[in-house]
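Re: Re: ligand-bound prediction request (bumping)

Still looking for help on this. To restate: I need the protein modeled with biotinyl-5-AMP bound, output as structure tokens. Inputs repeated here so nobody has to scroll up.
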Amino acid sequence: NITVTHELAKRLMEAGGEALSGQYLADEFGISRTAVWKHIKELEEKGYTIESIKKRGYILKEIPDTLEPIAIQPLLKTAKIGQVMEYIDSCPSTQILAHKFAQEGAPDGTVVLTETQTAGRGRLARKWDSAPQKGIWMSVILRPDVVPQKAPQFTLVAAVAVVRAIEEVTGLKPEIKWPNDILLNGRKCTGILTELQSDADGIQALIIGIGMNANQELEDFSPEVRDIATSLKMMDGKTVDRQELVRSLLFYLEQYTNLYIEQGFKMLKIMWESYSSTIGRPVRARMAKETLEGIAEGITDEGVLQLRTNDGKLHGIYSADIEM
Ligand code: BT5
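Reply:
Sorry for the wait, this slipped through. Here it is.
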């Protein structure tokens, strides 16, 4: 059954290249050595490369490049986020799926992952380009006990988590463009979309969508975004381990959402500002009804952008597209 295969993959991954004997595994799971062998075959059919050495046992050599839970969860360092993981090869949008799962009662911390989206979306119904197997297209369901007005701050908290994960896994140094873009060399490598399910009792669920360009080449992007987008691989020429990236991202997302819920935005604001490419710079903020130009002076404790126009007036910007 699936849980034994899952557990076996976990043991092999944790063994970190050491051999585990068939007898040891059989004893651990209370099954026969033949049954262990069958589960090994099942993993091989999924694309795992497992070496079996006479008298010593099984060594995991390679894991397929997939975002299936079985490849991610064993080494996941979180208590909550990602403990439940929904995976689907292809879907219109993980946001749509996550909304549905949330309505059906999916627990706090449920993660939805896919290899490609046919109708990936950004803010204001804009399209999100989601090349198959090249990125991380993910939605996280959170059920924090906070008022709906705080929802936009989760975008900023998630942005800090994204930057930390990219730094940790690749060594690259991304910047945050308020409110939801992560940039490398001025090009967008990640977008964040926070949506809300709420009623009279408050927030039922927050759906945090994260789209991260990992291993695309320029030609993997649609012509519309080729001039503005980049991937981690395009920055340093290295194929990034998407599984490690997801684990790191979920780890920091848990750390920082906990910090936010326990202590508010104060600490995170300091981190956010240190990664920001917006603050202290002249910017143009395009909003639904007007466009303002001025200096982005900072963000408030609520995450509202403070923009000072040339006439000296300070404006609080809640939502806009920023041009620099
Ligand atoms: C965003 O919107 O940046 C939020 C993107 C969220 C995507 C994730 S993927 C998993 C989850 N499921 C979904 O369906 N969505 C979430 P916004 O700030 O509105 O930016 C959208 C704009 O970014 C588009 O109009 C394009 O100009 C540009 N764009 C589209 N795809 C891109 C890509 N892959 N990389 C960089 N830029 C892109």
